[in-house]
Design goal:
By secondary structure, this protein is an alpha+beta fold. The protein has 15 helices and 13 strands.
């Protein structure tokens, strides 16, 4: 591995990392109000403001004092991973000023600490670390560094192949004053704990995907090449090195983030960068169905699926990425709070019965008004407010007519999924909801047609009726 001094970005193009196989810890901590368990003795080690990282060197020392969660070693040869490009990473901080700032802070009298803290907070807000290639309205850098590079893995024959690596280096995780609670430590994880949580969650998600055996899920996600770890030299800190974790993934050629298509389509409407409406709806359908497959077969709820989490292939199909903060239902510690149908359903149901009884339709899970227990509140096709429809996170991809009239999204969902045999049929409970009146005559007519087509067969019992997302 090429050596870099502390204070200099360690993942420059051309750097060679010596990576080795690693066993990730089990997902832990709290994710979306669900408890995974806690393997760490201390969740937040900031202990108030005085231990909070004030600059690059402070954060590096903090990370050195709090190494990643230790797990049993894994045998296997070392692999050389050569970095070609930083795809998503932190905007470089003013490293030239770091030493000066640290000296100034060390010379401060205790009486001046409060004023210095206030000034430093202002500087940190101005230094929000983001991918410098992205505009302010796109996906912010949130912690994991994404690298493009090449490696020759064990069992492969040359030449080296291209991969995407997600690096969970706590030294580059953004820090926030929200993580400071009191002198006993904050309720939110510190930068080291967050890096461990992200790494553990991402690895667990991809292993669930790999073990699912579902072709639709495998096509709709990146191929996973395992969990890895490597050393980063720390000469200036007199520590020798620190350990960093990594996930290795398929490098998908020809796929573009949905967020980029939307952004560039808005910027240059004459170049037909954005696909036509029919193609966008076909892509939207595939995105919904991959997300549904992940939920049903892997018990993975992405929870915050946004356009920057979706890659669009040339044929319009999608690949869903970024699972570090997904909810993994099979790891929830107290299973009585697990609302996944596979956990709550009677054990004697076969797969067909389970689907028809418990697998809610995308119509309900993505209904614009989002009142159903099975709704995905964080990812509705169109956001709505009373008397004021509001574009949601898919603004720019969904038809423009939906933004001013959410009933358009409701009609599309009904026409697309109302008789799909993979899902539970719509029932009287759905058709009787008062919020349908908000959709106008076109939606009412569609509802009546769908109601007649469904025939309203008996499809839930007392036990099944209580099963929901």
């Amino acid at each position: 591995m090429s050596v870099s001094e502390d204070g200099i970005y360690e993942y420059k193009d051309g750097t060679v990392l010596e990576i080795r196989p690693h066993t990730a810890p089990r997902p832990f901590g709290v994710m979306h109000a669900c408890w995974y368990g806690e393997p760490k003795n201390e969740y937040n080690s900031y202990h108030g403001f005085h231990n909070f990282p004030r600059n690059r060197h402070h954060q590096l020392r903090f990370v050195l004092d709090k190494p990643p969660v230790a797990t049993p070693p894994v045998g296997g040869p070392k692999v050389k991973f050569t970095i070609k490009k930083t795809v998503v990473g932190p905007k470089p901080m003013d490293f030239d000023r770091s030493d000066e700032e640290e000296e100034e802070e060390d010379e401060q009298d205790e009486s001046d600490v409060e004023d210095e803290n206030s000034n430093w907070k202002t500087r940190m807000i101005e230094r929000q670390r983001r991918d410098p290639r992205l505009p302010p309205d796109d996906h912010p850098y949130s912690g994991a560094i994404v690298l493009a590079g090449e490696a020759l893995l064990p069992g492969q024959e040359g030449p080296a192949r291209d991969y995407i690596a997600k690096v969970y280096d706590a030294a580059y995780y953004p820090t926030s004053f929200q993580e400071i609670d009191d002198d006993d430590g904050g309720d939110l994880p510190d930068c080291c704990t967050r890096a461990d949580m992200d790494y553990a969650g991402e690895v667990a998600a991809y292993e669930l995907i790999r073990n699912s055996g579902q072709p639709g899920i495998e096509k709709g996600t990146l191929r996973y090449y395992g969990a890895w770890t490597f050393k980063v030299p720390c000469k200036a800190a007199d520590r020798g090195y620190r350990w960093v974790r990594m996930v290795l993934l398929e490098k998908l050629n020809g796929a573009v983030p949905m967020s980029r298509l939307v952004r560039e389509g808005k910027q240059d409407q004459d170049q037909d960068i954005l696909p036509g409406e029919t193609d966008r709806l076909r892509t939207l359908r595939h995105m919904i169905e991959v997300n549904e497959e992940l939920w049903w077969f892997c018990q993975i709820d992405h929870c915050e699926l946004k356009p920057h989490d979706v890659l669009v292939r040339r044929d319009g199909s999608v690949v869903i990425i970024n699972f570090q903060t997904a909810l993994l239902c099979s790891f929830i510690k107290k299973q009585e709070f697990n609302l996944h149908p596979r956990v709550r359903a009677p054990a004697d149901l076969d797969e067909h019965q389970l689907r028809r009884l418990c697998r809610f339709s995308p119509v309900q899970r993505h209904w614009p008004w989002g009142i159903y227990p099975s709704s995905v509140d964080s990812w509705q096709l169109v956001r709505t407010r009373e008397q004021e429809p509001e574009a949601g996170i898919l603004d720019g991809w969904v038809p423009k007519s939906w933004l001013g009239e959410p009933a358009g999204a409701a009609v599309w969902l009904l026409e697309t999924y109302h008789l799909d045999p993979r899902y539970r049929l719509l029932d009287d409970r759905f058709f009787g909801e008062e919020n349908h009146q908000k959709g106008g005559e076109k939606l009412q007519a569609c509802l009546e047609a769908v109601k007649a087509a469904c025939g309203l067969p008996l499809q839930y019992s007392k036990s099944g009726n209580d099963m929901r997302h």
